[in-house]
Write a structure and sequence with these properties.
Layout: H1 4-13, H2 27-37, H3 41-51, E1 58-60, E2 66-69, E3 71-73, E4 76-83, E5 89-93, E6 100-104, E7 119-120, E8 131-141, E9 145-156, E10 174-176, H4 178-181, E11 185-189, E12 194-198, E13 211-213, E14 215-217, E15 220-228, E16 235-240, E17 250-251, E18 271-272, E19 299-300, E20 308-311, E21 318-320
Parallel strand pairs: 5-10, 6-9, 17-18
Antiparallel strand pairs: 1-9, 2-12, 3-4, 4-5, 4-8, 6-10, 7-8, 8-9, 11-12, 11-20, 13-21, 14-15, 15-16, 15-19
């Protein structure tokens, strides 16, 4: 997910193992909750939100596969959905989203989000901790599939603003990821502008892409790839596959000797982030860098994305790209 406050929520929880199967809390999850209860209520609330939708029901209006239209905005896949039967808002389909999130502004006023309990979920002095209020009992209807009894984090849009940064209004007000990917194989057809939900047990990929090994760790997908910098030797990197990141590629100097922070970031389409850069309390800035590939951008050793891609967190540890 590209919004840093939500991304920090994901990063704060990635070290915790998701309960499996979805309908049961295992011993490690119970131990986690017990340990966090000693660390403070806010951290415990964060973990409860992470686990809240395990076992929540999904209703289908017709048998799988179900095809949904989407809107493409600068590469983001936006799915319209009704929350509690009210006028639709758009959710970004985000492989890096561990929890459901709603961004509270004038476009979601009709949802009647309860923001009375907005607070920082984490240590009081941790500026990277997300700010929001938990919402329970939500029904999210994508048309053909309805997620019932959902818990979500409502984040006031104003809490994502920072001083002296260029800002643009988010093209969406919802974030959906794990709660779709854990149930279905999700196929994106960019030529047709559709997202199709398949049964992971019966789905077979027939597109023009290659099947590559992927690891799902704490609800986050990772792949191994060879990266070729514009002025250096190729190196092997473990990449987080994040469809909501808003950048083509993000690299972390210090994680590999071959990764260096660019001396001049003008005109490049990736970000190399120093690991020592202090965390900002918030940010809603859209990427200043364009999303299209530039000649001086490092490239992963894969071909151009096919028109059809499919991702599943359930079927196996393999994903097609």
């Amino acid at each position: 997910m590209y919004l840093p406050s939500l991304r920090r929520l994901v990063h704060a929880l990635r070290r915790h193992r998701a309960a499996s199967p979805p309908t049961r809390l295992d011993k490690s999850a119970l131990a986690l909750v017990a340990a966090l209860s000693l660390a403070g209520c806010s951290q415990l609330d964060l973990t409860r939100l992470y686990l809240a939708n395990n076992g929540s029901p999904a209703e289908l209006s017709r048998p799988l596969p179900i095809t949904l239209p989407y809107r493409d905005v600068d590469g983001w896949i936006l799915l319209p959905a009704k929350v509690n039967g009210r006028a639709p808002i758009e959710f970004v389909l985000d492989t890096g989203a561990s929890v459901v999130a709603l961004i509270a502004d004038e476009r979601t006023a009709h949802l009647g989000l309860d923001l009375r309990d907005v607070r920082r979920l984490g240590a009081a002095d941790d500026l990277a901790a997300p700010v929001g209020a938990r919402q329970d009992g939500l029904s999210i209807d994508f048309g053909g599939v309805v997620l019932r009894n959902q818990a979500a984090l409502a984040i006031p849009a104003k809490s994502l603003d920072c001083v002296d940064e260029r800002k643009r209004t988010a093209p969406f007000n919802g974030v959906i990821g794990h709660d779709l990917f854990r149930r279905y194989t999700v196929e994106v057809d960019r030529d047709r502008g559709t997202v199709t939900l398949h049964d992971p047990d019966t789905y077979r990929y027939t597109g023009s892409g290659r099947i590559i090994a992927a690891q799902i760790s704490a609800r986050q997908p990772f792949v191994e790839a060879d990266v070729k910098p514009p002025d250096g030797e190729p190196y092997r990197a473990r990449l987080h596959v994040d469809s909501g990141a808003g950048l083509d590629l993000t690299l972390f100097p210090g994680s590999n000797p071959a990764i260096r922070e660019p001396a001049d970031e003008a005109g490049i389409a990736y970000a190399a982030v120093p690991p020592t850069r202090p965390a900002r309390p918030c940010s809603s800035t859209w990427p200043v860098l364009p999303r299209r590939r530039r000649r001086n951008m490092p490239s992963a050793a894969t071909s151009s994305p096919p028109a059809r891609t499919a991702v599943s967190a359930r079927a196996s540890s393999r994903s097609s790209t």
